[in-house]
Specification:
Strand content of chain A: 15-25%
Distance between the termini of chain A: 32 Å
Number of helices of chain B: 10
Mean pLDDT of chain A: 91
Low-confidence stretches of chain B: none
Order of helices and strands of chain B: EEEHEEHEHHHEHEHEEHHHEE
Number of strands of chain B: 12
Oligomer: heterodimer
Chain lengths: 345, 345
Amino acid sequence: MSVNTTPMPPERLLELDDVHVHFSMREGLVRAVNGVSYHVDRGKVLGIVGESGSGKSVTARAIMRLLSKNAIEAGGRIRFRPEPGKEVEISSLPRDGRQVRELRGGHIGMIFQEPMTALSPVHSIGTQIMRTVMLHRRVGKEAARARAIELLEKVQLPKPTEMIERYPHQLSGGMRQRAMIALALSCDPALLIADEPTTALDVTTEAQILELLKSLQAEMGMAIVFITHNFGVVADIADRVAVMYLGRIAETGSVDDIFYKPKHPYTRALLQSIPRLGQAPVRRLKTIPGMVPDPFNAPAGCAFHPRCAYAVPGRCDTLVPEVSLFPGDQSARCHLAGKLPEEVL
Amino acid sequence: MTGTTNAMPEDALISVSSLKKYFPVTRGWLQRKVGEVKAVDDISFDIRRGETFGLVGESGSGKSTVARLILRAYMLTGGSIKFRRADGSVTDLTDLSDRELRPIRREMQMIFQDPYSSLDPRMTLLDIVGEPLVIHGVGSRGEIGDRVGELLGLVGLRPEYATRYPHAFSGGQRQRIGIARALALNPSFIAADEAVSALDVSVAAQNINLLQDLQEKFGLTYLFITHDLGMVEHISDRIGVMYVGRMVELGDTAEIFKKPLHPYTEALLSAVPQPDPRRRASGRRIVLKGEIADLANPPAGCAFHPRCPYATDLCKKEVPDLRPLGGREVRCHRAEELDLAGVEA
């Protein structure tokens, strides 16, 4: 896919164009992200779903320019619009330069699965938020403290004036996640990248955090890139969905199209393999045969073909499928997209 | 203390009554006891022969402790556990010594959550799967090798893999190795503690199907512990819902999901994000206040009352009993009058 050079449409906040990230390992080259394109509009939620090794987190780190040292940013373009009329090409900036550091935390916030490893264990919650605010906003200590209290209140932590003195280990998992959200939101980011933020939480706590993120999103109008392996969570929070498999986007579209009119066999198979609450009892779950292939020797052609029920020999195992477009801004990378038999989901 | 004992229902394989496990809370280098954590408090239930009994609850509810008590990995603080042996006799496990327990352990096995830490990285599959056979002195070297090959075949792994080490296998395959090890001694009962929680969607479905196939083939009885309500609904015949060390509701899976009798069950069911955008939880979802109660310092009365939308003064003062109601058991003062919502079909 050629890199598109036209300016982004005005509603666009983030656009990834054919992004490649490789890792050079002893066992060989791993193409963790192998030509990923997606976009997020201002104030919208993009859900990214995929199994382990699909490249969903690596892509997110590429946006933040937080990839590890052995990562090779092998191509593609990442553009971001920090304010109306301004466009920054994140992918061409030096990764530790002033501009990237300004974006990180200032315009793009990030929350992770395990707040205990993302938060500093030796600084209080308040100190961590105050430092971020002071760095990006150039305000004094008093103003930063007031902001920290306001943020902790916003994420509904009890007794915010006491909470700012607390250290992460003194909080429960759900409270830590709230503290991390407060930290990520400290500078009113236009974009929040949330990498499996509810995966480690209990279901009632997960529900609390999802409702919190939804209300904050509505209130502050930020966009969210929400990475998860849980289709239930995606259905709950996302406006658009991208399904990833082995470093590529298999399918992307509106949340309704992905769940009710999936065009890619992988999306269909995944949706069929999850037990749903209250569904008519089935004897056995539908499964996808085999397992996610080893990234060192990803299959030729369409990476999903060895597990695909519809794979056409001679085509799917040799040619990488192009992206097929469908109405409603839905697209699928499959030779048979749009030609699959109708199935009841 | 072996031999047939009183009152165990005909169809029960395991009968647990008034099970208690209190862990001491100690302080200082003298390990002075300053309190108790009632991890499991007065739990009674039967597991019927050939069924899958699901134990549901959030972290700290005591569900894993119950499994470990049944397998007598912990000493009981109180209560009793009875187990029906393969020959039909009933043994009271409560006060048995390790030596007396040894022959019974052949009939009760466990599968663990983390397939990475539950397999020794320096042992081959032959050693891992064959270890129970060696410990119990079953068969010669050659016979053990044959049996390991057979067991690997049963869980869908190639017998040739017996000489490999766990690192060569994916998470889902490692989980199968754990299942093969659990099956080695032909048990009648297997406790699976979050056995598929760490796996990807497509792999979890494969392993759940495998567990069900094995159950049919060998007439196994499962205690299935999970926080995944979709999975538990799919696999369990009956479930018990735990909250802060106590059973709050117990009964037939389909009935509980259709119409819960305990407010905590209702909240749990409503919290699950459904893979169905048209049924977005917002609006119907009951977002509980606060956090799961502290086990070391549980609230007076019903432990759920501070978070319960239906709590009355009575709930703050008196601990409700687990009592029978409509073919189920429920621990709630208001169970009769409340009209709680289940999962819509």
